Amino acid sequence: MPEIDVVDEAIIDAEPAVVAKAIMDEAMGKTHWWLPHWEAKPRGGIPPDQVGGMTDITIRRGVTIRFTAKTLEVNESVLRVQFVEGAYRGEGLWTFERVDGKTRLRYRWRVRPAGWLRWLLLLAPPSEKAGGSHHEVMKAGFEGLSRYLKHTSGGAA
After folding, report:
1. 83: number of Cβ within 10 Å
2. By the 8 A CB rule, do 151 and 13 touch?
3. Which of the pair, 65 or 82, is modelled with greater confidence?
4. Directed axis angle between helix 132-150 and helix 16-27, to 10°?
5. 119: which residues sit within 8 A by CB, 6+ positions away?
6. 4 vs 67, higher pLDDT
7. Arithmetic mean of pLDDT over the chain
8. pLDDT tier at 1, thresholds 50, 70, 90
């Protein structure tokens, strides 16, 4: 199965540090603004906001897909994870860039399907093979993040 390499981005009306914190809070299971599409649960003794931290991720989009991310790099402008178990193997890279008092939030998802998902995607339409469902999940996440920040003190609205 070929690699999936896609990029999604959005402009979020909040400072990069606020957006990065909101992403990490979601990954640590402290918030749930990405439900029902994406859910995370920390695993082990190292939290996901530290290098080496593990996060079990569940995606619900027609089928339920599970995989595990390990934090490789985390700072004020980058969150890089490696997918080490489950339906995908590869890397995810979040970047947080200040643009006119807002944040350009960018996510690059570079993975190979594994296990049963690999076989399912062989039969899928070309849009799915190119990350079609991933784009939909990310769009829902960006919208949920914007709503969440608008209703907390972290947003600029």
Report:
1. 22
2. no
3. 82
4. 110
5. none
6. 67
7. 88
8. very low
**Maximum CA pair distance of the chain?**
46
| Residue linked to tokens 């990350």 | 131
DSSP reduced 3-state for 75? coil
SS3 127: helix
For residues 14 and 102, the answer to whether their CB atoms sit within 8 Å is yes
Which residues are CB-neighbours of 52 under 8 A, at least 6 positions away? 46, 70, 71
C-alpha dist (Å) from residue 99 to 2, 82, 90, 102: 34, 27, 29, 5
> Under CATH, what is the fold of the domain 4-23+70-150?
Alpha-D-Glucose-1,6-Bisphosphate; Chain A, domain 4 (3.30.530)
CA distance 122 to 2: 10
Q: Which residue has the tokens 């593990």?
A: 54
Let me know: does 72 contact 94? Beta carbons within 8 Å. Answer: no
Query: Residue 157 half-sphere exposure, CB side, CA atoms within 13 Å?
Result: 11
SS3 126: helix
**What is the pLDDT, as a whole number, of residue 135?**
87
